[in-house]
Every structure is written in structure tokens, then in C-alpha cells.
Amino acid sequence: MVKDVVRLSANENPYGPSPKALKAMNDAFSLSCRYPDEHNDVLIDALAKLNGVNRDQILLGDGSGEILKLCAETFTGPKQGTLVVGDPTFEAIINNASANGAEVVKVPLTGTFSHDLPKMMNAAKEGLIYVCNPNNPTASITPKNEVRDFITKTPRQTMILVDEAYFHYADSPDYESVIPLVTDHPNLIVSRTFSKIYGMAGLRCGYCVAQRET
Description:
Layout (H helix, E strand, L loop, with lengths): L18 H10 L11 H12 L6 E4 L2 H12 L6 E6 L4 H8 L4 E5 L8 H7 L3 E6 L11 H10 L4 E6 L24 E6 L12 E4 L5
Helix pairs in contact: 3-4
């Protein structure tokens, strides 16, 4: 029997949550008989402050996976439009869109494993373009200037979802978050998760940043 297996397939943080987070969770157990809605405001306010946005630009989800699922259900399908993704990339949203009856267009990554954003934009009409940056499973980034140019040039009727689940692990000077661009781009949604750097995969907590009307 194999012992001492190192589990890598789910990209979980083996160190778990911080001591402060663990204490907060323990303190909250006494409230487990209540629905969480009335306490969401505390987290939303903290996330808005952390990301420098208004609180009405934050939407919470059961992990960022729920955010991806909602985007696929809302913006892709026989009537809504196609899903355009890099290949390879995180597959959850592909499964979500396929289940919704959407066409999925896969655009191969470039030779440097970045997203081929011009080809992805050309492949999209209406619908949703999904950009996982940093990308899973290649652990590669798409340079910030390319991403910024892509977001600026993409027609507004095409939605863009940038998945920043691995944002905290990117230390390249050629990488940056696109959350500051949300203010000027109503077709941009940025998802984040507590499952990776914060070590809370089992807690199922994620969120996205977008314009209120989006």
C-alpha cells in the first residue's frame, strides 16, 4: 500500500488557512444555525476595500467555480453565444457551457504558453471569452500589455471573464491584475478564489468584480 502520497492534482494549499482565519471560523460556528446572507456584507465590504472598488461591484460565490458556472449559464448557449477558451486551460467552465448547449471554441496557446488573444477575439462573436491568467494547468501568464490591449479592443457585446485564481502566485513584472480595468469596461468580469493562496478550498468561497449593471 502506498503511503505518504503528495496530492498535487487539485492545487490545494497544504498549509491551510492562517491562524486568524481559523480563529474567525471557529468563532463563527455558533452562528451555523443561521443563514449566512446577513453576514455577507462584512466580507463584501472587506473585499471592496482590498480591491479598491465599490461594494456593489462585488458578487460572492460558492468558490469561484460558482462564478464561472453563472457566467457560462448567463452568457453562453444556443441563443446567448459561444464560449472561447485557450487550449489547454481550466476545464470547469467548458463543462458548464457545454451543459448549457453552447458551442465551445478552443484556441491553442502560443509557443510561450500565453493566450493567443487576437485569435480568441476573432473567434468570438457574441458570448463569452474566458482567460485564465495565470493559466491552469500551464502555470504561464499572458503579458499585461497584451491583456490590456485585448480588453480595450474587444467589442462590448462580447463578455470577457478573467480568472485570477492564481493571481497571488504570479511574481513576474509582466503580470498584473485587470480589476482596475473593470470601471471602464462593462463587459469585463474578474473572478477570484479563497481556495488557493488562502488555503480554504473546503470552505467554498469565491467572488467576482464587475460593474453593477453587468
